[in-house]
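Chapter summary example.
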Amino acid sequence: MYEEAREPGDAGGTQAASAALLLIREAVEAVAPNVLPSRDFIAKFHGPEPIHEAQAIAEALRGMFAADERERELVLPGWDEFNPRRD
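The structure predicted for these 87 residues follows.
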């Protein structure tokens, strides 16, 4: 099923991707209005494919979060701090 949707020029896969991106766009716009460029702008300056819309959304999301939030690392405790329960 997924392989079929990945074929270039697959109208069903393109329509599904466009529908999903529209939902993502609506969610982003609800949280942060006017952050995303219009679909017409993206199509004119970046390209008409769903990947171009996805790239624009990803770029806007990256810009919404501060660099320190994006680059935060998960620091796990060392073995000396790990005390398993011994029953």
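To summarize the output: The chain is about 60% helix and 0% strand.
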